[in-house]
Input
Amino acid sequence: MTFQLYRLKQFVIRIVSTFSDWALFVGIILIGGIGTHWYMVDSGTTLATDRIGPWISWGEASRRDSDPYARAHFARLGALPLSSDVSRTYVATTDNDGGALHSSCDYAVQGRDFKSTWWSISVFDKGGAVIANPAGRYSFSRDTIAIGADGSFVVSLAREARPGNWLPTGGAGGLAVMLVLQDGSGSIADDHLSPEGDQLPSITRVACR
Amino acid sequence: MTPIRKAIALLASVNWRIVAAALCGIGALHILATLAAPSLAIATAFDRLEPVLQTNKMVVLPEVAPGSQPLPFMSPSLRYAMCRFDTTAHPVDVVADLRDAGASLTIYSPRGETIYASVAALEVPRQRIRLLPPDERFLGLTPEARGVPSKNSPTASLPATTGIAIVAVPERGPAYRGATERLLESARCTEVVELR
Output
């Protein structure tokens, strides 16, 4: 009886050890496969995105020949960006120092007027929803922003009212700033943001609570 | 035992065939998950817009604001008119006035791919896009074929069965609100029962 119990115990140990090896193997594949997919589709890498400072642009957004990562990214996001043939959409979720944008801090988005025929800067929460505020202010465009005589502008992202181009951030938590550049004069090519062309604005943290 | 020998012994004990199999499995799953993601997405843009829109009718959406934002990351600097088109029965004409810088007309497939995109251009401010069923059915003679000058000749004709047409017009402030509204209301999405 004791010997039979011993054999049964050995058998169970063998089964558990075989299955745990397989479970470990399958687990590594699942975590590795889904994890790398999630990272590539959610955050993007230089394979599928253009990164300029804190700004990230999916270069083949909405195009028929777009890469599978861009397709998966926008399908999961549920967004319909303008085709990158006629516009460029940049999204920043960090400031120029790499700190995550958060509504508990104030930021200054500083730049110069773009050569593109039309552009806009908007602030959203991290999920892409506009942030409720009593002023009903969510965005500035070339038509509505106050630009200095030298062609420069500053957009203040802050909870409380600020002079000039103020975009309220309320208590949204994580923030995402979106810049859309549109050009009717032809296709916005990859070298649109060349040293001679437009420079993207900087995002600087001013203060935190 | 020196650290180098320890490392060599450790490497020798690794089953490299298992490691290679795991890497191949990770790669295969990564590719499958990426290719399947558009089909497996819980709420694509098309799904989100379907209840808001009517078939072959242009709907002017309210200003983008909390509670009236059908899609994430929609620029609040633009006003939108949208149409869910279906060319199963008849071709569909999408007409939009793109005279202001920032205005655009984009036609998307249900998978979110751009079928056609146009931004404001002085040369052709009024765009008329004819969406044709992609099958080989006879749609009738065109006015030109009948020797009649066409009243509504399209800027472009494209094959498409279903999708969404989006007209975006820049919101230039309260003083221009009426003009913006009129531009959006002038956008059309209509079935073409007879080619004229």
About this structure: Chain A has two helices and ten strands. Helices of chain A lie at 2-42, 68-77. Residues 1-43 of chain A form one domain. The radius of gyration of chain A is 24 Å.
